[in-house]
Design brief:
- The chain has 139 residues and is α+β, with helices and mostly antiparallel strands.
- It has one domain: Alpha-Beta Plaits (2-Layer Sandwich).
- It contains 7 helices and 4 strands.
- It has a 4-stranded antiparallel β-sheet.
- The longest helix is centred in the last third of the chain and has 11 residues.
- The chain is globular.
- The structure holds adenosine-3',5'-cyclic-monophosphate.
- Adenosine-3',5'-cyclic-monophosphate binds next to helix 4.
């Protein structure tokens, strides 16, 4: 059965570009509710830990530097089929391939600076949510 939460980060490029409000409106208009949210900045160590699964990839160092370069908005979102529906809303990892009207088509710069993260499975949604939020920060 599909899970009902996903984890997201509005990435440093979209924060710098002034797109937090527009992106949150798209998320809420798409029927997601906010279970937890924080405006924060990842240290390089924390960003490296979060993306440890990509450690062997050639873009890992660049990814860690980018994700720790400025503040992000981290959130846990709830909706039926949250993981799948959220990935549809944000569009493909590479904005050049993202469907028109998706968050990445509208706000991402390139495959590295791609505006927003969305969990890729129910299992990772739980792991990523637990990485960023204590039980007392969830409503
Ligand atoms: P995200 O969905 O947050 O998960 C992994 C991230 O790695 C991805 O978004 C991109 O920002 C980044 N990424 C994936 N492929 C590449 C690539 N070819 N070059 C640079 N960054 C990448």
């Amino acid at each position: 059965m599909a899970g009902n939460i996903t984890f997201t980060m509005i990435k440093p490029d979209a924060v710098k570009g002034g797109h937090i409000g527009s992106i949150l409106k798209m998320i809420c208009d798409a029927g997601f509710s906010i279970k937890a949210m924080k405006f924060t900045k990842l240290s390089a160590e924390k960003a490296g830990e979060f993306y440890a699964i990509h450690k062997e990839r050639p873009f890992y160092a660049e990814l860690v530097a980018f994700m720790s370069s400025g503040p992000i908005v981290a959130a846990i979102l709830a909706k039926e089929n949250a993981v799948t529906d959220f990935r549809t809303l944000i569009g493909a990892t590479n904005p050049a391939q993202a469907a028109p009207g998706t968050i990445r088509a509208l706000y991402a710069t390139n495959v590295g600076e791609n505006a927003i993260h969305g969990s890729d499975s129910d299992e990772n949604a739980k792991i990523e949510s637990d990485f960023h939020f204590a039980g007392t920060e969830r409503f």
